[in-house]
Specification:
globular, single chain, 604 residues, 2 domains, alpha/beta, Glucose Oxidase, domain 1, 23 helices
Length: 604
Amino acid sequence: MSKLHPAIGRVTARIIERSKDSRRRYLELMDAEAEKFPNRGALSCSNLAHGFAAALDDKAAIKSGRGANLAIVTAYNDMLSAHQPYGRYPEAMKLYAREIGATAQVAGGVPAMCDGVTQGQLGMELSLFSRDVIALSTGIALSHAMFDGMALLGICDKIVPGLVIGALRFGHLPAIFVPSGPMPSGLANKEKQKVRQLYAEGKATRADLLESESASYHSPGTCTFYGTANSNQMMLELMGLHIPGASFVPPGTPLRSALTRKAVHRLTEIGREGDDYRPMGRVVDEKAIVNAAVGLLATGGSTNHAIHIPAMARAAGIRIDWQDLDELSAAVPLIARVYPNGGADVNHFHAAGGMGYVIRELLDAGLAHGDVLTVAEGGMAAYADEPYLEGDTLAFRPAPKISGDDTILSPVAAPFHPDGGMRLVQGNLGRATFKTSAVEPDRYTIEAPARVFDSQEAVQTAFKAGELDRDVIVVVRFQGPRANGMPELHKLTPPLGVLQDKGFKVALVTDGRMSGASGKVPAAIHVTPEALGGGPLSQVQDGDVIRLCANTGSLEVLADLSTRTPAKPGEAMQGMGRELFAMLRAHADGAEQGGSAMLAEAGL
């Protein structure tokens, strides 16, 4: 392990100093919670009897107080391909717990929506705030004071951040995330994207498109492109919340079962009653948050984490902002090429060396903190190993030192790109995120007249009418947390890609989000302050020249906005349950703070 890179040390020190008071208050609260609820023996007899009344096979053990009782918080449903395998997990996990004299109960379930189903639909306007609902549901599940540890079953976009936020408020307990793994590789992602673009041009039929999508998303397991779900798994390893190497082992395999068994056993070893106490609130510290950000940048992960990382950090009393991410990005090279910033999927990434290779490279280059507490013995160095089976026994060995495919994984000494590709752009339009890792460098600077829209459907209509066949910066506003829940604007990717391929200078500026699969078109996303409430985007007009430059970090409109009246959004949010989320929209804070109503109102 090399000496820490000075930029990593500088940013970490700044976060520690900025977080000093809030982190102290958090840790004091967790210490107090541990003293107040040392075990389920603090419950009254009536409380406790209710807690084990239905635990038919484990009633005697829970009643006697023998062994740890583990909470399973599950995001199972069988509509999400990534979460479908979780259906049988609790049954198996209870057996694994009994092997070592422990017990496990399903403490609660959390909602789990699929952004792949809701992309471009009204339901997507519930997506970001589902993270708050998941965090609240996690809190309810863990509120019974019955448990000595937390096994958290979740994978996809808002689900992992929501589980992290909720579980951190019970950070006096140890926690391990238990994944299920990716589906087998299907139709290559670039082929899928090609059909999408052909459909946008009217050169492929709906039947062609459905056949392509079905060949890509085809079985249980996580979708194989490197979007938010797989970025979540990568970050959990770098935060020390997985069993090492657990992220991308396929579902339904003996190795996957062995890793789940290890997670259950390990939870009982790191509880308060033992001599290796590793509470979640101590594992997730400032260095762990920096490690998560470094991993995101080194692998070209999802832009959604520019929102999720600050939100998760706040739940642990830690303050991180986009300036921190920008400075880390300048220091961390891109060492992975996984779609959309390459042709490979996560199965190819895993086969080429995967997380073990990435983590060892980062540690050896001094780009990640090795001196951190993790759920595994040996600190972060343990995550440079990969799991395998010796017969029926789980074992670990060093990850490959040489990439198995140098088009997918490269060493830090010869990276695909010298920086992590997630840059802060700012100016008189506000602050925004620009992901450069999938954008050609000659498109880092775009200066063109604006065409202003209030929805992605309006952009599609203009595109089909040929109104955008020119150099243009497409502005899509009233897409922020308070306006409509900050949906991902997935429908914009194919038409803007078509315009770019025609040779036009094209960019997107929006207070909304793009998918974790943000692609080749330059985009300033998450613009804050958002348009609702009079943010600068509400004053931009058609024809205003906008300059977006990743090199200089600028986001400017070359017009005087001071005399203009802010535009107003359209219809109220009604239908598809959106009206139920009015309170969350009204109280949400900005994207850079995490876009959360719950955290804002809790004063975190």
